[in-house]
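Lecture notes, unit on binding sites. The following record was shown on slide 14. It pairs a sequence with phenylalanine.
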Amino acid sequence: MKLPESQVAVLQAASANDARSIEQLAAETDLKPETVTGAAFELESAGLVTVEESTDQTVTPTEEAREYLRDGLPEVGLYEAALDAGADADPAQMGQVIGQSGLEGPQVDIALSNYARKGYGTIESGDITADPDADPESDAEYAALAALDAGESVEDENVLEQLESRGLVAISESTVRSVTLTDEGVTAMMEGVETAETVGQLTPEMLTSGEWRDVEFAEYNVEADAERIDGGKTHILRQTANRVKDTLVGMGFEEMEGPHADADFWINDALFMPQDHPARTHWDRFALSNPTEIDDLPEDLVGRVEDAHHNGVGEDGEGYHSPWSEDFARAIALRGHTTSLSMRYLSGHEVGELEPPQRFFSVEKVYRNDTLDPTHLLEFFQIEGWVMAEDLSVRDLMGTFEEFYEQFGITDLEYKPHYNPYTEPSFELFGEHPTTGELVEVGNSGMFREEVLRPLGVDCDVMAWGLSLERLLMLMYGFEDIRDIHGTLADLELLRETEVLH
Ligand SMILES: N[C@@H](Cc1ccccc1)C(=O)O
């Protein structure tokens, strides 16, 4: 019998009486595990070996667990402090016991949430008791962590589950295969197995020499285990941004482009945002220190915008009775919204005067001095858009949102009246989070006011919006923390495994 080299090697290394794992065979034959697996499958289909599969669990203590192995579990620290405070006799004040325990930050919550569960005592309305019979020495979770750390295995599934849910162990499963010679395999070996020359890869030389006609090619085995390789890939946020762009282009929109750092004029003044608006203080804007201002603002437009701020527009227009300075308008900051682009385009500054109907969009980054939390980042992507046409109504706006979000599987939009200095009426948009069921704000929108449109020279209706790309992602994939997706705390595994659906 003639077989490819790797199969001959595996056949020789396998035994009829004792199952050998892929790793053992790989070590013995000096072949890669994936080559051995491939060969084993081939031999199995030829009836020469059997391949058994089982699942192997690897449990590894996390960094946090190692800390506790060193310093003790937080709930045990709390128990010891409670004992010191005499809480085994009379309830002690919880605040004091926590202070004494030396626990800090998140460890306090961790201690509290495990204390009663593990029978160390009770916690009720500010008081803590300690069960005198509790024995930290025989804490099952600690013992299990210590065993794992020493390379031993832990059989108690409940304890493992608990440790996993506390984030103290990482459990990963892998398929283990082992190979045994069949009777047929033994017979084949006794009759003699020779190595057939097989070619794993076609080369240009083989093609030019014509040698390819005579060689035997090794078969591919697409089921063989191979090493996992995480190649670079487009970030899911970028993938979704691209999908949003495709969707909007499909709906007849054209893309806007423009500066991330822009004059306050485009970011705020053109939007009829008074210069003394709270959002325009230095707290909220990321000002540029070099350069500090933009010189080439369109003078006519600046004049009309200033006039609207002072006097409003129309016969009985009403302006702001607040100061307006051109220096303030020229100052450069990172844009807090991409509505600056909408102003640039609507004013004719970018692509010339526009005749209705028109539709424009951008999917671009904006910057805000917010406090970081699960739904806020200092920078995020805004899906900006506007439609310019005669006689638009709120129905057109809602219809556009329904059509857009439906393409991402979101069909339960809700609207809430809102206030923007530049739109009237204005609406916030909400969608339901697929796992928590909470209503998540996904965007803000409205019909631009006369005070915005008149100075820009637009004399028909314009409906507009700014939607959050990250929040759209949260609704699509059920992320609960925006920081899982980007920033320094991003969950790489999640990013590797999430597939953007088209
Ligand atoms: N600029 C608004 C969004 C918006 C754009 C256009 C019109 C109305 C609202 C925001 O950032 O929240």
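Take-home: The chain is about 35% helix and 20% strand.
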